[in-house]
């Protein structure tokens, strides 16, 4: 420390050296504090308040003193409640758990580092990329939740309406400025990163231009389908939320322990052709008949829904896409309008160089990643929503590509100003509590009708009153109905 | 092995439990009302373990609530058949005291005033004067559907939909009982809005007549005081409980309804029972959790302390949850009796 300025962020070694609690994954400044934490939180007898040294000790104590059996360790994580592990301080932690913990620390560390770099614009030590984009402003969880709620409301409204219509494209456009710095995504800053991706995407794309003339659809799809099969996308997001495309390149591969995560970026970029090809397919349904089968390449969709950048990157509103208005594709810089025109006529994907489309869709991926960062859970929900949306929307146009409808509908959904009633409730709840409450899932959430009333409506419990029931016809029919009407 | 501090009653109801109630005198006499259209009377500490089912009282429809009357042989029941009945537990005689225009959700008995109060989804309260059983009950209209009733020697608390809560003073109907027959002009002493943001599930009054606790479908319990003075009102608080981290979504809680509340008759602490199958004891004054019992296999529907505070009856059956089309508590309904050690439910004192 001599003469060296202490940074406000610790070294990875320091982080890894911190003692942490096996039961709750909290870390502490020193071992003594950890031990007293464990005694107070995990090894304390509920009955007499005595603090034992280990879970086993507490178990024996409970058994002998209170004649009770201890089955789980208090205040512990769901998968760490067992008594079979004898932990004291950091001793006795199973190796696999320890390794998982270390990995998590490392991941978090690199992530934080990347964020710092993105925020400050400083290059990584030894890193070569020059003009890296600054990190866009990060949305607060509250805002995110609020938007999610609105979005969900829209979604709900839409599923009831049964179509993506009703929302003007303008709304989507208007909405876009509300997000943070859309420009950062679609603009030039992201064009360079493509090159850094070099190998993986190129491999994927490679086959594509070559075979374009003959069979555009099939070869195009194959390389991408496998990676897409569900898990990789979301998983990647949850684990490395805040990363965006460019910062990733800053990480030395070695820094990333879980290998599949490192593979993720290529997958994500894989979605580029997806979103890119799908509009095309909508123009030329027959040629791309196979496309809809593309597994739910959800990552782009959530990004689209939530992040206005998409609007800018792909301004074409949903119906326009379906209505074959190629002109709209001119706006995104990367998408050559001529390319689209050509496609419309000859249904050949080849006319559009992959890289161009890549630039556009890349922004969506970055958007996704960033979006997900704060709200992995939301992403899951959005996935779910989009899955549903897909199901709903695909039906009318079977031959069309899967991707554009959900994404665009989602975008417009969020844009519409009037939220459904359900949404207002959610927002209200989340807004009020977002400060200190976690997101929650209520087991029973009907705020107006009690469980008993619902049970009472079931034929199983229904009762048809005799005698006085004849007084009014309404009563005579079904008492449950009466139950409902009484509620005036 | 440790002696059994908890056991399961043999011959439990065949379907969901709506209420469990201990007798006012005997600490081992328990009434259980059930959706299987019966009221069950148990002697919880019979010769054989698991207690003894003394009698079953059949009703025409699911029974939504039950309470003891003046002694251990009198009970009142309320049910889906819109009726309020008096049951002589010895002779099995059932007398219909009155009828509502919809299922009757709750009944409470006031020993001090010889009153039986019933609350129905037809949005009325009926005050049955048990000294004049022939007289028509006094009917009071409520603004919303009642969900739960609780009584003290002087007050009645009615928890309703829309988070409304009315507190009645019990002298009133007795002081001016004859003035009105039929719809009474009895006004609530206090009209409050629940301090919880979601639907009220249960209300229970403190045995010392100072206040009450309410619980909501959103894993929360609030404790409030009757005294309207700002000082007392400032003491009210609410806390989260009956929640579990969602194993599938890190950072998310699964939130269960808090279905049951019961105050300990002597210590003034209270128990809460939730949809998570957990029963927890709380010290309302010190604002601390005293203990939490191991999870029961199903949701907790009802709780009751025995008159001497030595036993806690726990009615457990599957809880009705979101999106359920069908419901049946058949085979999964249990009643547990938990024996409390001397100081088990005693508050630790504020720290």
What key attributes describe this structure?
heterodimer; A: 488 residues; mainly alpha; flat; B: 351 residues; mainly beta; Methylamine Dehydrogenase, Chain H; four-stranded antiparallel beta sheet; 30 strands; 47% strand
Tell me about the largest β-sheet of chain B: 4 strands, antiparallel
In whole angstroms, how far apart are the ends of chain A?
74 Å
> What is the helix tally of chain B?
2
Question: CATH homologous superfamily of chain B, by name?
Answer: YVTN repeat-like/Quinoprotein amine dehydrogenase
The CATH topology of chain B is Methylamine Dehydrogenase, Chain H
Strand order, largest beta sheet of chain B: 1-30-29-28
Rounded radius of gyration of chain A (Å): 28 Å
Share of helix among residues of chain B? Answer: under 10%
**How far is it from the N-terminal to the C-terminal residue of chain B, by CA?**
35 Å
Please tell me what the overall shape of chain B is.
globular
Give the total of domains of chain B. 1
Q: Averaging pLDDT over every residue of chain B, what do you get?
A: 88
Globally, the shape of chain A reads: flat
- Average of per-residue pLDDT values of chain A: 56
By DSSP, the count of extended strands of chain B is 30
Structural class of chain B: mainly beta
Structural class of chain A: mainly alpha
Oligomer: heterodimer
Helix content of chain A: 40-55%
Supply Rg of chain B: 19 Å
Subcellular location (chain A): Nucleus
Keywords (chain A): Metal-binding, Nucleus, Zinc, Zinc-finger
GO molecular function (chain A): DNA binding; zinc ion binding
Protein name (chain A): C2H2-type domain-containing protein
